[in-house]
Amino acid sequence: MMRYFLRRLGHAFLLIFGVSILAFLFTTLAPGNYFDEMRLNPQIAPETVAALRAQYQLDRPLVVRYASWVNSLIHGEMGFSFAYNSPVAPLLLVRARNTLLLTVTATVLAWGIALPAGVWSAERVGRLPDRLISWGTAALLVIPDLALALGLLVLAVRTGWFPTGGMASVDFEDFSLLHKLRDLALHLALPILALVLSALPLLVRHVRAAVAEVLGAPFMLAAQGHGIPRRTLLYRYALPAAANPLISLFGFSIGALLSGSLLIEVVMSWPGLGPFLLEAILSRDLYVVIGGVLFSTVFLVTGNFLADMLLYWADPRIRTKSGAR
Amino acid sequence: MKTRSAKPLRCLRLLSLVLPALVSAFGPAEATPQQKNTNEELLVVPGDAGHSGGRLVVSLRGEPKTLNPLIAADARSREVIGVMQADLVHINRATQLTEPALAKSWKISADGLEYTLVLRKGLRFSDGQALDADDVVFTFRVYLDESVHAPQRDLLIVGGKPIVVRKVDAQTVVFQLAKTYGVGERLFDGLAILPRHLLEKPYQEGKLGQIGTLATAAPQWAGMGPFRLKEYVAGQRLVLERNPYYWKTDAKGNRLPYLDELVFLFVPNADAQVLKFQSGETDVISQVSAENFSVLSRQQKSYAMTDAGPGLEYNFLFFNLNDAGEKTSPEMQRRQKWFREVKFRQAVSAAVDREAIVRLVYQGRGGGIWGLVAPGNRRWGDENLAHPARSLERARALLKEAGFSWSNGADGESVLQDADGKAVEFSILTSSSNAERAKMAALIQDDLKQIGMRVQVVSLEFRSLLDRVTQTKEYDACVMGIASFDADPNSDINVWLSSGGTHLWNPSQEHPGTPWEAEIDRLIGEQMSARTFEQRKKLYDRAQEILAEYQPMIFLASPDILVGAKNSVGNFHPAVLEPYVLWNVEQLYLKSSPENGAR
User: Fold this and answer.
1) Helix (H, G, I), strand (E, B) or coil at B103
2) Is A102 in the B-facing interface, judged by CB distances under 8 Å?
3) Which of B126, B135, B198, B289 could be cross-linked to B228 through a Cys-Cys bond (beta carbons 3.0 to 4.6 Å apart)?
4) How many structural domains does chain A have?
5) Which is it for the CA torsion B157, B159, B161, B165, positive or negative?
6) pTM reported for the whole predicted model
7) Is the predicted pLDDT of residue B32 greater than 70, yes or no?
8) Which helix (H) or strand (E) holds B357?
9) Contact (CB<8Å) A39/B502
10) Which domains does chain B have, with CATH numbers?
């Protein structure tokens, strides 16, 4: 167990290190830099722009800048934002918290709906309810996330039932606790709905396929023959047996917690990493972009790592294989 | 129920009468900030008197980055800083003329080299600390310190030398210039006076750049503007509260600002801004595109949309006239030979349909331009500058004179070719994030096709475009726009001068590349040191005429300033200079209504 765990952990660190180098390289290779827009200000002399570039070490070699960034990473700063003139880590953390509030809720909801819906559909393969779910998920699959989010925003404007974006009302601080929760729930409703609707088709289809495959297995027929009730059969025997692909998918869901909602956040003005990173990319706020990529990579790697551990726990074949090595 | 509550209520009323008397009898002798202190020289602002109280909510397209004027480089930070800070002399955005601000008066010496500014008495920063000449001297010392890299420094270099600032007494400061400066007292507009009591220590420790972040605690930041920091929620909003020490009153003697709070909501894009306004979540909106303006105008009920008229933004097409020497590829050399031909540029200008640009890009809410001075600039436009209508005949005649000819292409279309028989074909860069300029480029492509030019429009992400234009210089032509900060020519000095970084067709030249650029340099240099408006105007008009003749920039159109406000917002008078709707924020108020009362 420990060897398997350490090997996976080693892979994870190597991956993060590799991603950090690539992120650094690609963001540096992108044309333009943060101070270029100042060149368009007729009141600022080119010498001032050059001095600012030098102040932020943009005129130094790439290796020097990478070393300096790694040093700041060790000190928990993750580099320095040119735009905010402050360390990147606190800027990212506060926005990542908002993103996680959105995505964790949406992921829990999506899995909470997808598991029973997928099992229900698998139990009725080829029948009308299964077809209806297939058509529904196919329809959701073809609707782009952007169209979905815009449609929901139109609904908000037309009906006035929901706020048109943002995370809290202007009066939020003056509200009672109950009123605060209600306000937050209202602001969360539409972005979560958009995220759940966009994630649901894939999850439902995977659960359905995995469970349907297990339901036809001989051990299930034997269990049925022993008179085990249908519900117990489905949730106690079929679902764990179908768990392997679902655990991998769950790992990806965790990996996408930070990066999966960026577009929805931008469209719905959610103050998470989405609008923040988009602006950083467009303005070439180099270290914010690298920090964002690194944050997402850590989540992806953690998700995969967790999935590996869950698989190790759930599947005796993996334990045997890794023990044999 | 009524009888039970009546007694405490009476007691409360009695207390409310007695308490102020007790406080005034035993409390500090100094007047509360709301009242006018007899030692204060407050500025009385003309205009309709409003009601105090309430909160105005405004959306910002993105998050401001700092509250520190020394490092603010983005428009959002500048907008927020604009309502938290104040300058010595201010340009009234409505009249476009200067007016007293923190300085109650100023005097310019006979030789034009010395400006003596007298500060108002009783000025206080938003944290209650007094402001005097030491703060002013400190502010300019910081701005001029090279190690601070403040963008303001470039504005304070006159005749190649930094301005010298000297304190005369607690209320009087003298500014010594190395050369006469035509800009005059406009120089002081936008230069926020910094709180020495808060910034001197970090300045001495070399940490000025690290303070004034948005996360700064409210008591640690102060300014002279109508509002001061109250609360910042990362990624969501910035809440400002009224500065109780503000130095302006209305005609009735009520201390401004009227509003209790000003809230900036951060939204990621223009569409989100429109949605927030449409749903009533924000009170005012500015920088609305013509398309959104039409949509909002159709649905206006509780709000009114206003076309404030032509602004100071000018959009233009320019060709790559850089001289890269031997590095230039033969293909580029051939194209640059066309671009350097004045008649070629004049022909392009004659072929461009500016009316169509205004009609199709700005839905009629804008105006065609033939020079750098946009129609919104009331004082500096050259009335004698020709505004020739589109003429394909004239374009063809000019091209013919320059040795170009036409042949029939494979598809039967007429193809323009140069003296060597090569087809005239080039690309126009445009920013992919600016839909209006992309449309302009497409219209120009169509216009030039009619005189046989084959043009490809290349949309690039804005930073990549800037990199091509200002760094690698690998481009043929580009459509771009600049918005002047001020009506004065000083605002665009680096566009005019051949040594300027925004002399976009051939920036940062060591020596003027052409005789006409040398002449423009001379005229702009002279007008900068001329003493009277008439002298400056004459020189500036001549520079505009040269630019119109040689067409290094082919001016296209200038959009109107489109804004909107809820009907409940009083004193809403949008201007065409930035900040378009908040320039008189201290006078904005919420008209009495049950809805506003509930806020």
Assistant:
1) strand
2) no
3) B126
4) 1
5) negative
6) 0.84
7) no
8) helix B354-361
9) yes
10) 9-283+568-590 (3.40.190.10), 313-559 (3.10.105.10)
